[in-house]
Write a structure and sequence with these properties.
By secondary structure, the protein is of the alpha+beta class. The protein has 2 domains: about 10-105, no CATH class; about 110-250, 3-Layer(aba) Sandwich (Aminopeptidase), CATH 3.40.630. The protein contains 7 helices and 11 strands. The protein has helices at about 10-20, 60-70, 85-95, 135-145, 150-155, 205-220, 235-245, and strands at about 25-30, 35-40, 50, 80, 100-110, 125-130, 165-170, 175-185, 190-195, 225-230, 250-255. The protein has an 11-stranded mixed sheet, sandwiched between helices. The radius of gyration is 18 Å and the shape is globular.
Length: about 260
């Protein structure tokens, strides 16, 4: 992995902003520098407290406020903490019984330094703008092994995206969609989301083909780079992303839940 450049802090802020716009929550509360996000409990990323700026109120008071919001909405309290954030919040959450979960890596690629690879001509790919097809949504549900109810809660988020968005797919030998991904573009930066491939058709180049098509479409739409967030322990996925050009790790984050 490449190391971040001297302007990494401003790039990190841009990436955080882009990722939130590309994957919004259904409800949000802005409170003293915190963004409290809720989205039917479908994912932790859209159901957690995010620190977006400095605040003035005592941290314990703010934590109690966030806990009340989640309690009133019937959800557990999650906090999403960046690896380079101030340690005081982490220490207070630890004292209140919050356990740490899943470190996630934020990767970045600059299209000026490395253009996205061309899709494999042997794999049929397509990219849809603004809205996914019903077939795309069903493929995402099946390959991510979600129930119809779970998928409906997650897919409702797509209606909230206000930035330009593209949905890519790659089809297997049987003609069905075997791999999907989408990206939202904000300030010339594409944030890649929801990368899912049929478990029975992995290691066949389908994810690479779908993502190559997606990144090239984003570049044609004006994106100068791309970012994504992946579990740090998911070494096969990280290896795939490195081959595509995501060779810079900007920062990491993890969750705290009580």
């Amino acid at each position: 992995m490449d190391t971040p450049k001297p302007n990494a802090s401003s790039l990190q802020a841009k990436v955080e902003e882009t990722c939130m716009n590309a994957w919004p929550a259904l409800k949000e509360v802005l409170y003293d520098g915190w963004l409290i996000r809720l989205a039917n409990g479908a994912t932790r990323r859209t159901n957690s407290v995010n620190v977006i700026g400095p605040g003035r109120r005592p941290l314990k008071e703010k934590i109690a406020y966030a806990e009340a919001i989640y309690r009133d909405n019937g959800r557990p309290s999650y906090f999403r903490l960046l690896s380079n954030a101030e340690p005081e919040l982490e220490q207070i959450l630890d004292s209140r019984g919050y356990r740490a979960e899943d470190e996630t890596s934020t990767l970045y690629m600059n299209f000026k330094r490395k253009k996205p690879p061309k899709p494999d001509a042997a794999v049929f790919t397509d990219v849809h703008e603004r809205r996914p097809t019903k077939e795309w949504l069903e493929a995402h549900r099946v390959h991510s092994r979600r129930t119809p109810e779970e998928a409906a809660a997650l897919h409702a988020i797509l209606d909230m995206i206000a930035v330009p968005v593209f949905f890519a797919e790659a089809r297997g030998d049987n003609g069905d969609i075997a791999s999907v991904a989408f990206c939202g573009i904000h300030e010339n930066l594409a944030c890649v989301q929801w990368v899912v491939t049929d478990p029975g058709q992995r290691r066949m180049g389908l994810s690479h083909a779908a993502l190559s098509s997606l990144l090239n479409r984003a570049r044609l739409a004006g994106a100068a780079g791309a970012c994504l967030q992946v579990l740090a322990a998911n070494t096969p996925a990280i290896a795939l992303y490195e081959r595509l050009g995501f060779t810079c790790e900007l920062y990491r984050y993890h969750y705290r839940v009580r």
